[in-house]
Amino acid sequence: MANSDGQGGSAYPKSVQAGIPRLEVPDGWTAPKIGKLFKVVKRPVDLIDDEEYQLVTARRNRGGIVTRGRLRGKDILTKSQFRVAKGDFLISRRQIAHGACGIVPAELDGAIVSNEYAVLRPTDLLDSNFLRHLPHSVYFQQTCFHSSIGVHVEKLVFKIEDWWKWKIAIPRPKEQAKLAEILDDHYASARGLEKLHRLKSAMRVQLANDLIQGDEDTTALNKLAHINRHSLPESTSDEYRFEYFPIGGEDDADAGGWMTFAESPSRARRLARPGDIIYSTVRPLLRRIFRASMHDHAVYSTGYAIIEPKQASNGSFIFHAMTTATVERQVHGRLTGSGYPAISARDLATVSLPRQSQNQRETIGNRLDFLLAEEEILGRLAKRTQLQSQELRKRLLSGALAGASARGPADRGDNTDRMEVVQV
User: What percentage of residues in the chain have a pLDDT greater than 70?
Assistant: First the structure.
């Protein structure tokens, strides 16, 4: 079994649950072998060269079943293909250790998959809605990992015959349906908040574009702000001890955190003061822009420009203006490089903003700040609701909310019946 993925420090990537499955059965629950919960379904397809077929794939981390495009029969290299139907449970034999599985949604009914997938239907022991949540169980994920063989975590092959032999704790079907309904309601609330958050964000961006439009009467950014005015003194004293540096994914708006100088991946740093605007000059169209922390000596890498408003009351206006289509078009025209296109501080200083009165700038900035504050509250609420839903699912699937004490560990059986295979 593989024990390293080359990602220093951790034996496996986050998508893998490699722990030993230890089954505990709450009172009132049953512990059938997994093989009793599914039927294998095979619907072989004879590919026709000029006919177009919908292909699907299973995302890692239990991301569900999604399209991977449409191809004509003659362009599909693997000729052994099978039809899937709405409600089928698909398992990727080569990616299930990473959580690549899910239920076929209605819009992908009739798509095809190769024999690299197991196509299953739940039996009467398993509620189909409960099945949507079951793969998120740590125990479920561990049994998938321990039913896979290979020399490396990225080359494991799922042995479904071994998987059938594991026992799994589940409530009775009627109780499964109730638990699924509770979880569906919680996740629907989280999705609703996420949608509202996105709508609020889109409204703010649109309003900013409407209020801060380019016209012939403009002023350069460096007329309203200093660019990279303060460099960091050659000092490692405690007052300059912390640096704020983005540490998340490129599209993660919440990425960032405090680090010591020793931990910082950058030796080139710029000093920012409260109220300054931090603007990513590398791949700037990703909109990695934020206001400096209230820390008096926040330090940033030179991949960012420090925009210091000459008048503090202009800070909000400049902050929002830097995300408008008017400014982004100008930035795009000044980018250099290909892999990581960037704009120099000198070119950034020449970006034009609409010439407006001081009162107009303050009014626009305050209005957009109010909308941004609402948006951030919704974002935090959506994230908190999502985390609460995940914790609830974890507890419900483990039986932690079932009340009674659980029975002890149950081992994998070796005398399971062979699974029924339905040829359609």
Answer: 81
